[in-house]
Amino acid sequence: MAASYFESQVRSTATFELFVRTLPENRGYLVAAGLEQALDYLQDLRFRAEEIDYLRRHPMFAHVSPAFFDYLGEFRFTGEVWAMAEGTPVFQDEPLLRVTGPIIEAQIVETYLLSVITFQTMIATKAARLVEAAQGRGVVDFGTRRAHGPEAGVLAARAAYIGGCLGTSNVEAGLRFGIPTVGTIAHSFIMAHHDEEQAFRDFARLFPENVILLIDTYDTLRAVEKVIRMGCCPKGVRLDSGNLADLSKEVRRRLDEAGLRDTRIYASGDLDEFAITRLLAQHAPVDFFAVGTALVTSKDAPALGGVYKLVEVFEEPAGGPRKLPRPTAKFSADKYTYPGSKQVFRSSGATGEYTHDVLACAGENYDGATPLLEGVMRDGRRTCSAPPLESIRERVRGLLPRLHPTVRELRNPAPYLVQISQQLAGLLEQVRNETLR
Amino acid sequence: MAASYFESQVRSTATFELFVRTLPENRGYLVAAGLEQALDYLQDLRFRAEEIDYLRRHPMFAHVSPAFFDYLGEFRFTGEVWAMAEGTPVFQDEPLLRVTGPIIEAQIVETYLLSVITFQTMIATKAARLVEAAQGRGVVDFGTRRAHGPEAGVLAARAAYIGGCLGTSNVEAGLRFGIPTVGTIAHSFIMAHHDEEQAFRDFARLFPENVILLIDTYDTLRAVEKVIRMGCCPKGVRLDSGNLADLSKEVRRRLDEAGLRDTRIYASGDLDEFAITRLLAQHAPVDFFAVGTALVTSKDAPALGGVYKLVEVFEEPAGGPRKLPRPTAKFSADKYTYPGSKQVFRSSGATGEYTHDVLACAGENYDGATPLLEGVMRDGRRTCSAPPLESIRERVRGLLPRLHPTVRELRNPAPYLVQISQQLAGLLEQVRNETLR
Q1: Spatial separation of the C-alpha atoms in residues A96 and A118, rounded to whole Å
Q2: Least confident window among A48-52, A335-339, B93-97, B371-375
Q3: Is the whole-model pTM more than 0.90?
Q4: Tens digit of pLDDT for each residue in B289-333?
Q5: A138 has which bridge partners?
Q6: What is the CATH number of domain A2-108+326-436?
Q7: Is B422 near chain A, with CB under 8 Å?
């Protein structure tokens, strides 16, 4: 497409919006995440010589002129970006990102932006659900080994932290993003020692303040006795198999009897928000839930239907005087998109609870409502520094409770009201008539 | 764990095996993939100064001696690896990878290996299912935008090609792995032009041999008339919405009437193996299925239960004379693992069809059966060069038909027989008695 725009001298400026058409099953909201990596990408995107050579030699490009490859060598993203801040609750049809720039530039970045933003948004949302289910107990990310490749594990750890997890077992994510890391031991560590008690002692000696001992390798209750015999108070014990509700109660009882009241119980083993809910309904005295597969793959809803749609075209090239844009929309058998550059306005009630959103044209204004899309990049450069990850996480903890509890239900949540502004509805009709006439 | 092994002077050599405990729902087999990236990782793994500094300053590591960080600075993987060749059909409990080395080294690599191998294995398997459903029609990967981050999209494209896809829309995967790339246009390309016909003409002029025109942006059947009016014979047209069975028949009829018999029909839009099966049952004249989300996320089964388990320990350090290993296994409430280094033997019937596998101890031998695990790395160096991706893909096309059709069923496949050798069963009992006594 880029080559065709180039060769056909299409130099228009265009606006694309990235949004999710329909929330996945059992999701009443999403938590926006991934903007940071999107902006890094836009700011740093270059085509390396090796990449351009590959395209030049590609049979598909046989009729493309050398000038296009020269253009790729000089390529920079020079556009403007508006976005929802990471950590913002977001709903169907609401743009997470709005990109305006020369159409070639704005088109080339589509796939990367979709993949990095929808993935992290999906995982931050899943984390928020797990944290909701845990009712104040801690949730930690133990999922990297089941992530869709090692890099997905690192991005998932970041998104999980945004969504409310306390930390991650992914040390690379600790280094790259400053996320607290949470470690424990594997069954292999126990099995590599001649006996379980020696393994416990070796580990506790080296990590006296931080030891979390895995106690289900052979016999959980016998392992608890070994922990007690150590004569120290480990930070935690972890259960990874068996009936977690029954075991956690018995383990808690024995630890308490031995005076190890400060030793916390970690549970793991194919947990998700529904398993956590069941465990807490059974009053399982679990302090921390370590969640892996379900979290880092968003297993029950492993893809968001994210799209990146052209919403308006300025026929004249960037830099020239802008005339009115031509709004665009797609109307095929079973889908349509809203035309034009948009803004999302969020309204709150007297006690701060969110009442509804309005999806509006970018130029509109709603007194008392908060516009959610903010300018974050101009001329291909960030216009503000990235907020600390910690503050994004705090935002989520502050904003989610403003959604009505029925919207936050883990099953069949109530839909949150997203109204279409009169002006946007009118524009949709106008474009529909012009397009399909 | 590495720090504890180091400080406690545990210098044993250990063997770990990577396998999948249970095949996901509706999977009768898996297609092994990802070995190449696993071996790259093992051969190149180093700790950078920045990483070591991060660990050194980490509060968790307050009691760890400087010698450990010096050790990390010198770290190399020096072990031995046996593996199933990529493209091999594999079943529950069968090791895809067996790693033997100093226990610290073999432990540190666990998470990366699991994530890179189980992800690609899952996607190669999904691709094989899609290809099976397509009954000889082509399947192409259009999924990157929905992958779990951009890098997952590249790895998914590789695995999809191994599993039988014809190509990918991911150009980076084309560059890195030599996979054929397949391009088309997006709705935005049509919408950016003043009219659809002009967009078609612009694109066809530049890519006369390769043009695949997207015809559902506004009105599919009117778009077909525009394609016909162009007076050339485009390589293909793509349908992305609506009733694909009805539309493809009508589009085919009109193309044929106009003499465009060589123009192929591509279908896309939330396809999976079941949708493809339904379309073909309705005799939809679709030539190529472009699959996105379902393929690159393996949406119906988005995680494989891959594990990496310690199976034996040689108590003496590497380099010394090896005594007999101590086989290890885990026996907790609801799980157990098979002890000892293993080999998988596959037997065939008279016409080449696979009859059963035997999961055996590494030293065993079965006349006439093929051992599937091969040595691929010694002293941390590859012992053979990587096979071309094309030949891995050909292997899959050759080996899968040797599985009984009931094992390849897309729903509720028959289980393939994996026997446990007498020797392995005996070893399991022996270790169980020793461990739980």
Answers
A1: 9
A2: A335-339
A3: yes
A4: 999 999 999 999 999 999 999 999 998 655 666 678 899 988 766
A5: A288
A6: 3.20.140.10
A7: no
User: Rounded to an integer, what distance in angstroms lies between the CA atom of residue A247 and that of residue A234?
Assistant: 18
Interchain contact B248–A (C-beta under 8 A): no
Q: Exposed, middle or buried by CB within 10 Å (0-12, 13-18, 19+), for B404? A: middle
Per the CB < 8 A criterion, the answer to whether A342 and A359 are in contact is yes
CATH architecture classification, B2-108+307-436: Alpha-Beta Barrel (3.20)
- Domain spans in chain A, listed from the N-terminal domain onward: 2-108+326-436, 124-296
* Residues making up chain B, counted from first to last: 437
Distance of residue A297 Cα from the nearest chain B Cα, in angstroms: 7
Size of interface A-B (CB pairs under 8 A): 278
Pick from B203, B209, B331: CB nearest A218: B331
User: In chain A, what residues touch B150 (CB-CB under 8 Å)?
Assistant: 111-112, 115-116
Backbone φ and ψ for A312, nearest 5 degrees, come out as: -160, 155
The 8-class DSSP code of residue A59 comes to G
A191: contact with B, CB 8 A cutoff: yes
> Is any Cβ of chain A less than 8 angstroms from the Cβ of B220?
yes
B123-296 classified as CATH 3.20.20.70:
yes
The ipTM of this complex is: 0.96
CATH superfamily, region A124-296: Aldolase class I (3.20.20.70)
